[in-house]
Amino acid sequence: MKFGKEYFDFCKDVNNFNMNCIGEWQTQYFDLLKDIFEEHITKKHKMFDMGTATGVFVETFRRQGYDNVYGGDVSDWYIQNTPFPEIRDRLCNVEDGKIPFSDDTFYFIHMAQVIEHIPEELIPGVLNELYRVLMPGGIIYIATVGPLIPGTTDVDPTHISMFTREKWESFFLTAKFRNVFGFYKDRFQSNKMAKEYDWVNFVITK
Fold this sequence. Notes:
By secondary structure, this protein is α/β, with parallel strands linked by helices. The chain has helices at about 5-15, 25-35, 55-65, 75-80, 125-135, 165-175, 180-190, 190-195, and strands at about 45-50, 70-75, 90-95, 105-110, 135-145, 180, 200-205. It contains eight helices and seven strands.
């Protein structure tokens, strides 16, 4: 399945999920991120949404007064078909795994429900590119799904990299990241929305 229109339609028709939707959930998620990452979500430094699709994350932040958030995706179809004209010029195509920004650009990088879609052999290159554009002192928040329980199936055929926490941490270590999730663990555990979702969360830095 190709990312772009084919996956957009799959999410809408099979998962009953509209990738262009901005509503109460997105506002609550913004509040979650502000609550947990308050030191890094500021209007002083640029932020980046990796795997932004049509830019819902970027548009949600814009509506909250943040015009310093950018987004990138491997599919140019999403960007060309974004329904959010105000952020169109802040969306970019991550072509051949290259993020079109200079070194040390972003203070906060968001990558939620994205990394499990990347083939295992491409993950090291993606992480190296994220490392390059992350500012010293900046952080990357990665949320993904855990490995399948034996006997169960995943309805999303694009979930192709579903690993244990230990394997993900080995990827991050190889890419020279430091794991700082421990600093944020209590914040995740005390946040109501974070507790409702069975996500596997990571916070890494240079």
